[in-house]
């Protein structure tokens, strides 16, 4: 069976990557490739929608897909815990069509986040430093926000992380008590480092993205998971079944 895929944000960097994957795979077919000037009704009749737009636009794309009964894969940053909670109410638990929200399509990034969550209860000092190309419009990144939220959940029984002088702007933005520091500059694609500190030791979990090719496997997993998606799934780990909260 061939899945007809509509891509919204197709003229951007990630959109072009998704389009190349869809056109390459025998079980996928391009239904529509929409840019910012195109009518969203172009997604009508698709079996799946992939949203790779910008944070301000993404919620309207998801609404448009759900209104038409089409499952949607969200590859756009900016989906906070509050926004996802509202979406869960809109979609319904275990209901179709489903929504899969993936802040980062890299398999390595998903694993690095899982490792950080595993270590989180054992270290009281935890901070995140994330670096992206100068063109990335949002900060902190969606990956950093999700990592921090999962760290906070993993520390529910031991309490928030130690973040002294959090009132100073240079200490970063706190998410679930975890300080996040964002760098935006030329010469990088994407990097995230989670630094965990304990008595007499430091653990650093660093993930580097060297090219967009690192996202291809995750994008393909996400698109192929859409027909069976129910409710709202968050993170590539929800497809890989890494045991993190969805």
Features:
246 residues, alpha/beta, Rossmann fold, Dihydrodipicolinate Reductase, domain 2, 2 domains, 6-stranded parallel beta sheet, 5-stranded mixed beta sheet, 7 helices
Plain-language structure description:
There is one protein chain. The chain has 246 residues and is an alpha/beta fold. It folds into two domains: 3-104 and 213-240, Rossmann fold, CATH 3.40.50.720; 107-210, Dihydrodipicolinate Reductase, domain 2 (2-Layer Sandwich). It has helices at 13-24, 58-67, 81-91, 107-119, 142-154, 216-225, 237-240, and strands spanning 3-8, 28-34, 48-51, 72-74, 99-101, 125-132, 173-175, 178-184, 190-198, 201-209, 232-234. The strands form two sheets. Strands 2-1-3-4-5-11 form a six-stranded parallel beta sheet, with helices on both faces. Strands 7-8-6-9-10 form a five-stranded mixed beta sheet. Strand 9 and strand 10 (201-209) form a beta hairpin.
Kindly give the count of domains: 2
What is the third-level CATH name, the topology of the largest domain?
A: Rossmann fold
Which strand order do you get reading across the main beta sheet?
Answer: 2-1-3-4-5-11
Measured by DSSP, the beta-strand proportion falls in 25-35%
| CATH class group of the largest domain | Alpha Beta
The termini sit apart by 28 Å
Please tell me how large the radius of gyration is: 18 Å
Counting DSSP H or I runs of 4 or more residues, the number of helices is 7
């Amino acid at each position: 069976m061939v899945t007809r895929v509509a891509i919204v944000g197709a003229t951007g960097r990630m959109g072009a990557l998704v389009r190349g994957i869809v056109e390459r795979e025998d079980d996928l077919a391009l239904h529509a490739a929409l840019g910012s000037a195109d009518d969203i009704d172009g997604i009508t009749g698709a079996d799946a929608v992939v949203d790779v737009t910008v944070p301000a636009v993404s919620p309207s794309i998801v609404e448009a897909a759900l209104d038409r009964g089409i499952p949607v894969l969200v590859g756009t940053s900016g989906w906070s815990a509050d926004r996802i909670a509202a979406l869960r109410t809109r979609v319904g638990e275990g209901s179709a069509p489903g929504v899969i929200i993936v802040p980062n399509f890299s398999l390595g990034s998903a694993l690095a986040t899982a490792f950080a969550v595993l270590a989180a209860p054992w270290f009281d000092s935890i901070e995140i430093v994330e670096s992206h190309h100068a063109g990335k419009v949002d900060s902190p990144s969606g990956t950093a926000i999700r990592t921090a939220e999962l760290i906070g959940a993993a520390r529910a029984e031991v309490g928030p992380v130690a973040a002294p002088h959090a009132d100073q702007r240079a200490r970063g933005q706190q998410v679930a008590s975890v300080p996040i520091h964002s760098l935006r500059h030329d010469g990088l694609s994407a990097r995230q480092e989670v630094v965990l500190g304990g008595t007499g030791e430091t653990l650093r979990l660093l993930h580097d993205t060297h090219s967009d090719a690192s996202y291809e496997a995750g994008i393909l997993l996400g698109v192929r998971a859409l027909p069976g998606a129910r409710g709202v799934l968050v993170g590539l780990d929800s497809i890989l079944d890494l045991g993190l909260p969805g």
